[in-house]
TrEMBL record:
The name this protein goes by in its record: Hemicentin-1-like von Willebrand factor A domain-containing protein
Stored Gene3D superfamilies: von Willebrand factor, type A domain
Species per Swiss-Prot/TrEMBL record: Branchiostoma floridae
Domain of life: Eukaryota
Coiled coil: none
Keywords (A to Z) from UniProt: Secreted, Signal
Keyword Membrane in annotation: no
Length: 161
């Protein structure tokens, strides 16, 4: 009876959700924090392409993530975060990003990074794509502390132009 019960849950929820339900995933999160302000207009396509390259390089490998998070930010908006186990859904969300708004630098990058760190699994990697400094620099200590506590690597990607 117990075996049938768990089989019915697995069938209804799917393998990925079932593994999460039983806390079987010991993997990591692949997370992107992407600046979508108008100043990124010339760089947003390259940022999206780079993000998709990173995703593709990890799929099917021993370091394949168990989930994906995207936290876009502009001015004054941060998020909403896209959290999924489906790499195709994640790539679509990245592909749908467009540069708009802003008009001033710096931006709310640390607020977006804080959301990313809070939602990511320990031992994960967060890639940040931005061309501006942090408007919310008062968060630097709490964001740094959270990243250290969860052993999360943060990789900053800045356009070269």
């Amino acid at each position: 009876a117990t075996e049938e019960f768990f089989r019915s849950i697995r069938t209804a929820a799917g393998d990925a959700q079932f593994a999460n339900f039983l806390n079987l995933n010991t993997g990591s999160t692949l997370c992107f924090v992407i600046d979508t302000t108008l100043s990124m207009e010339d760089d947003i396509a390259a940022s999206k392409d780079r993000a998709i390259e990173i995703i593709s390089s990890r799929l099917g490998s021993p370091t394949a993530p168990s989930n994906f998070i995207l936290v876009p930010f502009s001015d004054p908006h941060v998020g909403p975060a896209v959290v999924t186990n489906d790499p195709e859904e994640f790539e679509t969300a990245i592909g749908n990003l467009q540069a708009s708004g802003g008009g001033d630098a710096p931006e709310y990058s640390l607020s977006a990074l804080q959301i990313a760190l809070a939602r990511s699994l320990p031992g994960s990697t967060v890639f940040v794509f931005t061309d501006a400094g942090a408007k919310d620099a008062g968060l630097v200590e709490s964001v740094t502390s959270l990243g250290i506590q969860k052993n999360i690597k943060v990789r900053l990607n800045v356009p070269l132009n």
